[in-house]
Each structure stands twice: as C-alpha cells, then as structure tokens.
Sequence to fold (207 residues):
Amino acid sequence: MKFLAQFISVISHPLLLASYLFLVFAWLYPPAMFPIPDRSFKSVLILIFVCTFLLPAINVYFFKAFGTITSMSMPLRKERIAPFLMIAILYLVVTYLLHSKLGLGFQDPFMKFLIIIDLLVMVAFFVTLVLKASIHSLAIGGMTVIIAMLNTVTENGIFFYPLIASILMLGIVASARLYLQVHTLKEVFVGLITGALVSLGGMIFLF
Fold:
C-alpha cells in the first residue's frame, strides 16, 4: 500500500502539471494551444516537459547533492524555500523567453495558461514562506479548476471526462499524501484551496 501511495505521489508530482495540462489541450482542444501550429505540438510538449519538469527536477537534485535539502521530497518547510524560489524563477524565465524569442504574445491562449501555471508556482513559494502546504493538492486543485471552467464554455462536453478524472485524481492524491503522513489534513486543504483560488482568479482575469 505504501508503494502504491508513493507511486501516485510520483506520477502526480506538481512539476508535471504543465506537461499534463498542455497534453490534454493538444489532444482534445487545440485552440488552447494557439498560436502553436498543430505540426509543432509534439516539439512544444517536449519543450514544456524539459523546461517545467526536467530542469526543475535537476535543480532540486543539486540542492540535495549540496546538502541544502535532506531529501528530494523536502519534508521540512524551511528547506523548500530556496528550491521553490529557483523553480519559480526558472518558470518565469521560460515564459519570458517564449515571449521574447518565439514571439508568443501574452494575449495568446497558450501563454495565458502558462502564466496561470507561473502564478501557481509563485504562490506556492510565497505560501511556503509562512506555512507548509501540500503542493500536490495545490497543483491538482489548480488544474481541476482550469478544466472545470473550460468545461463550462466549450461545446460537446469535451472536458467532461478530463474533469471527472481530475477530481478523482485529486481525491486519490490527497489520500496518498495523508497515508504517507507527509501532510496533515489542514496542509492538504490549504494547498487545495490556494490552487483553486489562484486558477479561478487567473482564468477570470486573463480570459
């Protein structure tokens, strides 16, 4: 049971949020990827995976290698601060480079969703300055709100099944984090509510 909970925590890692979200968009709702052309979806998805998961994960590994953190899971609030700050900076730099070097406008849907993800990462850092929250819950809560709001404005219920899957995943991940005793119920709820509010505000303001 512990192995299963750990496996769930790994595949639902917060750094995978962007990869999962844009994969769903590329598969089900290409307009959310605009102005990225269909032929470039695969390359962009790989780029998103490398920049929002692989590079931040390597960053955390170096913090572990130099003894700044005790483990890759960063169980202590204080040891999360420096890695979270570096990850937030990396996300902002990637967003800026996509805008300045590739000419993607901040008014484009692709960039707007990326900005919401940036906001989730930055808020995760600021929350961590004062208290420990479940970043897994924050990420999945944020993604669930994005999908829920898209489900209300798109035709044919195209996001209905992804929404159901996201809600189920939210419950499963929260249960796994509690089972592993890496978070309290309060920390899970703080993460969930924070992620949901950030995504809700971002969707209303940007769209």
User: Anything to note?
Assistant: The two ends are 42 Å apart (CA to CA).
